[in-house]
Amino acid sequence: MKGKWAAGIPPRNFTWIIKDRLAMSERPGGFAPNHRKVRRQEEIIWLQVQGFTRVVSLLPSSHNLQAYEEKDLASVHFPLPVHGDVRPVLAEVFRDLHARLAMGERILVHQEELGDRVAGVVAAYLLWSKRLPTGPQAITALEHLTGHPMGPAGRELVAVVGQIDPLADTPATGAPTSD
């Protein structure tokens, strides 16, 4: 690949949460009805050129995981349930993010589209990791970064942080798809 496309293109709604360390976006390639394989490849190339070392997928399905593996981009899949208890999955996500950020990794978190649920997970992580002291501050920070108010689905994820074990010296877990 040559020319301006050699560096790829950023995923839609790409947003830095912790500058040069943690970002979020919609799923590379776009969400279901708009998903395009070529766009996904260009966005994965961009992630690699930008130095991303890991993609964290919160999708309920395994979409894109094979594409990351084919491009040698490490990924981990934490299917975030739409219904039921999200606390066990959130605890795994938080511990994985915390351990990998401490190791200096550059991470992208995504779900199908950049909406309340992925923003809620990231805001909840900022609260859980004590990067922000209160839930309202975490919500406000994410609203400012995304330019959109956080709805009930995201706020509910932030609200359960107090019910998740605080920072612990536990190894990162999850279902890694490539390293």
Notes on the protein architecture:
The protein has 6 helices and 6 strands; from the N terminus they run E-E-H-E-H-E-H-E-H-H-H-E. It is α/β, with parallel strands linked by helices and 179 residues long. It has a 6-stranded mixed beta sheet with strand order 1-2-5-3-4-6. Strand 1 and strand 2 (22-26) form a beta hairpin. Helix 4 (116-128) crosses helix 5 (135-146). The longest helix is centred in the middle third of the chain and has 16 residues, at 87-102. It is globular, with a radius of gyration of 15 Å. The chain starts with 14 loop residues before the first strand and ends with a strand.
What is the secondary structure topology, with strand pairs?
Layout: E1 15-18, E2 22-26, H1 37-49, E3 54-57, H2 65-70, E4 75-77, H3 87-102, E5 107-111, H4 116-128, H5 135-146, H6 152-159, E6 175-178
Parallel strand pairs: 2-5, 3-4, 3-5
Antiparallel strand pairs: 1-2, 4-6
Helix pairs in contact: 4-5, 4-6
**What's the number of helices?**
6
Q: What is the second-level CATH architecture? A: Alpha-Beta Complex
Poorly predicted segments = 169-179
Q: Provide the gyration radius in Å.
A: 15 Å
Number of domains: 1
The secondary structure category is alpha/beta
What portion of the residues fall into strands of 2 or more residues?
5-15%
Let me know the number of strands. 6
Order of helices and strands: EEHEHEHEHHHE
- How confident overall, as mean pLDDT? 90
Residue share in helices? 25-40%
Q: What is the strand arrangement across the widest sheet?
A: 1-2-5-3-4-6
The shape, in one word, is: globular
Annotated CATH topology: Protein-Tyrosine Phosphatase, Chain A
CATH superfamily: Protein tyrosine phosphatase superfamily
Most strands sheet: 6 strands, mixed
- CATH class equals Alpha Beta
Compute the separation of the termini in Å: 25 Å
